[in-house]
Amino acid sequence: MKPTLWFDAKHTQAAAGVVRSTGDGRLILQLRDDIPTIDNPGGITPFGGAAEPGETPPQCAARELEEETGLRVDPAALQYLAEVSKLDFRGNNTACVFYLLRDVDPASLAVTEGTAIILTPDEVAVDSRTTPFCRRLAALIAGTAPSSR
After folding, report:
1. How confident is the model at residue 3 (pLDDT cuts 50, 70, 90)?
2. Residue 53 burial by CB count (10 A; 0-12/13-18/19+): exposed, middle or buried?
3. What gap in Å lies between CA 81 and CA 27, rounded to an integer?
4. 50: closest CA among 34, 67, 73, 72?
5. pLDDT band at 148 (very low <50, low <70, confident <90, very high)
6. DSSP 68
7. Chain centroid, CA 91 distance in Å
8. What is the spatial distance between Cα 83 and Cα 61, in angstroms, rounded to a whole number?
9. Would you state the pLDDT for residue 117?
10. Distance between CA 133 and CA 136 in Å, rounded?
């Protein structure tokens, strides 16, 4: 499936993120730094960030993944998960697109922002630090949530 949200008349900002899964089905997510001037401080989210001019959603996701974890991937290897329109922490309408990258070895990551946290989808569902949309992504991956936007 191809994303329908990105830069447009409503969305002045765009961002993409990646949930990685290990070979045994656990999810590798980002425990964000607890800095009040960033989105979701202290929260558990996918790795990701803001799009640069001219980037497609998969290009943005792959670039952010490399910047934040050192893991270089072909954007074509990313599996579309979901998208959402949201207000970011600054109040900007932002189109957010999320992807899954399967069978990642956690030892291959060199995290430069926040901390990698490895949880089962059930643990994601109950951890109070997990953002609501990250819970939805984990449920989609586990097959327990509808795949609608």
Report:
1. confident
2. exposed
3. 14
4. 67
5. very low
6. H
7. 19
8. 12
9. 96
10. 5
Tokens matching residue 140: 């989609």
Q: What is the pLDDT of residue 145?
A: 60
Q: Which amino acid is at 112?
A: T
CA–CA distance, 31 with 3 (Å, rounded to integer): 26
Q: Residue 63 CA to chain centroid, in angstroms?
A: 12
Cα separation, 73 vs 100, whole angstroms: 12
Q: pTM to 2 decimals?
A: 0.90
Which pair of tokens denotes residue 38?
């960033």
Per residue in 72-99, pLDDT (tens digit) is: 999 999 999 999 999 888 888 999 999 9
Give residue-wise pLDDT tens across range 100-143: 999 999 999 999 989 999 999 999 999 999 999 999 999 999 98
Two structure tokens written together for 82? 């979901």
Tokens of 142: 């586990």
Residues pairing with 100 in the sheet: 19, 79
73-109: burial string, b at 16+ Cβ within 10 Å, e else: bebeebbbbbbeeeeeeeeeebbbbbbbbeebeeeeb
Supply the mean pLDDT for the chain.
92
